[in-house]
Every structure is written in C-alpha cells, then in structure tokens.
Amino acid sequence: MTHEVERLESTSDTCSPAIALCKSIASSKGYYQDPFIHVFVSRSGSRPPLINRGHYARVTAVRNVIFQFLEACGNNSDDSSSESDLAHGQNLREQIVILGSGLDSTFFYLKNMSKIDESEEPETEVDDKEGDLGLRTREYTLLSCDMRNCQELEAALGSAGVDFSAPTLFISECVLIYMKPAEGTRIIEWAANLFPCSIFFTYEQIHPHDPFGKVMAQNISLRGCPLLSFEAYPDCDSQKQRYLEATWETCEAISMQDFYDGLPEEEKSRVAKIEWLDEIEEWKMIQQHYCFILATKDAEGRKLWANLKIST
C-alpha cells in the first residue's frame, strides 16, 4: 500500500466518522429529521450550537439540491408537491451519485420518505472480493474504488447499472479538497464528459489565506487530513472557473453564509429557537469559509438548472 493510499484511507477513517457524529447530534437536537444517521456513528457526544447550526446549513443545502433536482426531472410544476412526492421518483430514470458516501444516510432518508413497499425489494447482495466491500439492492449500491482512477470509477458505476445518459446529480461534500488539484479536476472533467445531462454539487472550504482559514487548515492537517486543494481554489470565483474550464456549461458558487441568509425567515426563526447562539460573528465567519457550488452540463442540464430554486 502506497503512502498516498494510506493517507487517503486515514482521511476517510478520521473525517467521515466525525462528520457523521456531528450530523447525528444536530439531528437529535431537532435541526432536521434524519432517523438513520445515528446508525452510522459508534459513540455519542455533544457539539456547541454554532457547529450544530453549521451542519444544519450543510444538510439543508444538500437536501434542497436533491429535492429540486428530482422535481426538475419530473417536470413537476405543482407548487403543492410534497417532499415525499419528489423523493418517490416513480418511473423516472434520475440518478444520484454521492462521492465519498460510506457514512452517508441520504439514500435511507429518501427511501423512508418514498414509502416503497419492502416486499418488492430483492434480497440484499453483499460482495467482498479482494477486500472491496460492496452492497447492492435494486435502488442502492455502495461501491469501493479509488476515485482518483476515473477508469476504475467508471467501471464500478457501470457494473452498478448506472445509465450514463440519464439525468444524474453528483454530490461531493468535502471530498475533492482532500485530493491533489489535478486529481479532483480529473473527476470533475470525467463527470462532465461522460454524463451529458448532469449536475455537480460541491460543498468545500474556501479562504485559506486569512487568519481563520490558516488555523482551520492547520487543525485539519494535524489530524492527518491535509486539504490538498485548499490553496489552489481559494474562493468562489476560482471554484467557478475550475468547473467551467472542466467543460461544465454553467457554474454558480456562493458562500454558505449567503445560502443561509437566503433561507425563509420562518425557517431561520425556527432554527434560532433550538439552541441559543452567542457566537454570531464566529458563526458567520465559519460559514463564510465554506462554499456551495453547482455546475450543470449541456442543454438538458441547463433546463434542470433553470428549475433549481437555489436560495442566494
């Protein structure tokens, strides 16, 4: 095993459980509903309100994109549609590919909302060949592969029955930033070239050069998880340019503070009542150091983008 592979595995082993725990704590506090995330954590804990609210913003951003992607795929213009209707996705071909999703509960959350009859499910198949663990059902496949090798990634998705021509949403939450710039860009280009009707959502850190960004990068690096692409794409503008140069047709990027400010006032009022937050300025500083990126590909992708009601 090479040093680079060991480093990436260490990053996964360190960061993924920590994020799953934070999401579980925020859910238990009532910031959002997720009856499954606790299954992905092996211990209990607590986090300060500003961390809980930050993970609320993160989860809300991802869910907003997912629901609006599904709605756009369904050409559903009925404003009365519920989240359950959107999650059901009956007779649609849309696909969601979550990169680095080993401890991600999104599928189970969506499945729970869709109320699919369990009797229709085939038996779960678990593959453990040459150390590569995989789990596969009719609707969900968990794959293990080296994403830096796009040929390996493409083969893995193909074996899972992914339709490369179907509307596809890629989700990358703090994944590409742990790779070298060229490695992450290769994945972005690969997705743009192989999936003609697709959207790429990314959630990552920005602003590495100010005092807060330097401390954040140092703290993460001390855990053995250096942010290898942090300085290469330091702000929203450079992130946008990265995707456009990788042949994505359109790209928008905003800070998570801007995203949160754009949420409905009644929702922000609900969240504010969950836990008292004294560190308002620190909260804003943290959110300004994370960004929300959406890139779309080709004419069909632009139609999906037009239907996405992203708060800004």
TrEMBL record:
InterPro entries, alphabetically? Answer: LCMT1 (IPR016651), Ppm1/Ppm2/Tcmp (IPR007213), SAM-dependent_MTases_sf (IPR029063)
The enzyme's E.C. designation: 2.1.1.233
A Pfam match is LCM
Q: Which UniProt keywords apply?
A: Methyltransferase, S-adenosyl-L-methionine, Transferase
Q: Is Transferase there in the keyword field?
A: yes
Biological process (GO) annotations held by this record are:
methylation
Reaction(s) catalysed by this chain, per the record, are: [phosphatase 2A protein]-C-terminal L-leucine + S-adenosyl-L-methionine = [phosphatase 2A protein]-C-terminal L-leucine methyl ester + S-adenosyl-L-homocysteine
The Gene Ontology terms for molecular function here are: protein C-terminal leucine carboxyl O-methyltransferase activity
**Ligand binding (S-adenosyl-L-methionine):** R58, E173
Q: Does the keyword Cytoplasm apply?
A: no
Which EC class does it fall in? transferase
Q: What does the similarity note say?
A: Belongs to the methyltransferase superfamily. LCMT family.
- What job does this protein perform? Methylates the carboxyl group of the C-terminal leucine residue of protein phosphatase 2A catalytic subunits to form alpha-leucine ester residues.
Protein name stated in the entry = Leucine carboxyl methyltransferase 1
- Origin species, per record, is Guillardia theta (strain CCMP2712)
